[in-house]
Fold this sequence. Notes:
Enzyme class (chains A, B): hydrolase
CATH architecture of the domain at 170-311 in chain A: 3-Layer(aba) Sandwich
Strand content of chain A: 15-25%
CATH topology of the domain at 170-311 in chain A: Rossmann fold
GO cellular component, one term (chains A, B): mitochondrion
Subunit structure (chains A, B): Homodimer.
CATH class of the domain at 170-311 in chain A: Alpha Beta
Number of strands of chain A: 14
Oligomer: homodimer
Radius of gyration of chain A: 20 Å
CATH superfamily of the domain at 170-311 in chain A: NAD(P)-binding Rossmann-like Domain
GO molecular function (chains A, B): methenyltetrahydrofolate cyclohydrolase activity; methylenetetrahydrofolate dehydrogenase (NAD+) activity; methylenetetrahydrofolate dehydrogenase (NADP+) activity
Amino acid sequence: MRQILCYSLVSSLLKSTMRSHTYIDSLGSARMMAQVLDGKSLAKDIKDELKLKIQEWVNRGHRAPSLKCIIVGDDPASHTYVKNKVEAAKYVGIDAETIKYEDTLTEAELINAIKELNADENVDGILVQLPVPETMDERKVCNTVAPKKDVDGFHIINVGQLCLDMPTIVPATALAVIEMLKRFKIETFGRNAVVVGRSKNVGMPIAMMLHSDKRHDSGLGMDATVTICHRYTPKEQLESFCRNADIIVTATGIPSLIKADMVKPGATVIDVGITRITDEQGKTKLVGDVDYDEVRKVAGALTPVPGGVGPMTVAMLMHNTFQAAQRLRDTTTN
Amino acid sequence: MRQILCYSLVSSLLKSTMRSHTYIDSLGSARMMAQVLDGKSLAKDIKDELKLKIQEWVNRGHRAPSLKCIIVGDDPASHTYVKNKVEAAKYVGIDAETIKYEDTLTEAELINAIKELNADENVDGILVQLPVPETMDERKVCNTVAPKKDVDGFHIINVGQLCLDMPTIVPATALAVIEMLKRFKIETFGRNAVVVGRSKNVGMPIAMMLHSDKRHDSGLGMDATVTICHRYTPKEQLESFCRNADIIVTATGIPSLIKADMVKPGATVIDVGITRITDEQGKTKLVGDVDYDEVRKVAGALTPVPGGVGPMTVAMLMHNTFQAAQRLRDTTTN
Lengths: 334, 334
């Protein structure tokens, strides 16, 4: 069972979602700007593909895939994320429901609620929007979700399978990065990749797929030489590893960490960071880890923030949910 | 529960197990040779520590830890490995038994045998000597061993826990490398490490511990910047990454892959490779991945083959077995 999506639309996608422009440098020469890897547009195309597949699935007599999104407390960012996920689900034909709890909910109550959803045959996917309140053990909560319904891919068993290159459910953001590299035909085989940030939900799984053997069962291996940098990588070493990289994936939440002089001309830069900052005019805006305007003059391809990895994450979550529904059906009918 | 072993003997160990010598270079100057990280001697000390602890454990009224080593077929190397493990077990006071099967054994029969050992309260550790016959699915066999008795650390759940920096059973060879770095006080924090080889039992778990956050629950994180190189890393890139590394861990089985001009003066080189070759006199001998005699003139510290990581692997397997016995006891009495 390979997790490669349908590539039928790729050639048309490439035209619509890769944009490049020229600019005039300080000596008056026209130079090529990096191609912008438009995640929003690609995510739309992937959702359209999924919508068709889910329609076929339902036409074959299956019920629509079903996703339950649990949110505890009133963090506005979390509510926005869940709202986006539920909207995307509705768009592709997934029956999604948000289950809201006050932050007075106890860990035991949350665990019971998850267990009920685990046992419910009419539920295919369960996600618990993180962070959970500090009174709860996040790891314990993630491990309560049945691995087959764990569309976030955070359960120990799903992580173990990922790290052993076995078919599994991959954390959506990590899968989004790998899917963008594939869809935009960025060569990774034998290339140098740097992953900046070692979080267990993003940096670690990305590094795992980037370095792994493509011939293994998951089909997600990218065969790159991968360097994992993090908060304790000295600045000059981070700069040096990045300058030597064909692909930089950054996921730190540090605005402007990746500057133009750290990027090899023509390299691909995937920006997973997302931070809300206040600009000089006092307006708030979302920025990534990359000094976008300057890096665009050097890189070969670059994801914007917003509109890059973010919308792709939501699309891959929908992919995971449909995959969970299909596998659960395979299990119950076999 | 932290997996740090007792360090009481470290200072005396360091004297006895780190050796360095001088040599005369081509210009007639005396130069320092790398310290030889003597795994055999360190392994002996660790086994002596374990022997004491197990004696105390038994004196407190527990039965001796029990290890079952399953071997299928008649591969001579596999039989030698198992013999060494059983001998080490006896030395430290672990009650070890080898269970031998003909290679006509079916996968189903092996799985049943493992399940019986899983259910047996008098068994703490189970290992299946790899490789199993080609008629069997190695992954399925590894996942049949109960995670708490899986002293090889190959079960999906143990791998998942390792990759999430949770307390777990770590594959013995990977743990041997990390333990040598700790015992010989090789600084890893913020340093550059290269892991050559991406196997799931050796290279991958080593890279995982080397790059991880020391403050996490497992206590095994080493906070190094880690580059994972493999068969598809171009030769000149492998050379360049190695030359920039403070620590090189190589686990490829390719003799003389790591040459002196690839090693930064003063770097630590850990050689996990072990290959039997025939020398110019027609004699067979065991060699590692490292061009030992030449690299010794450049490196700061270096493990020999044989007598480096190999004996340490056996010692760490004993550590894993005693740990499994303790945890199983904790589980049944709580």
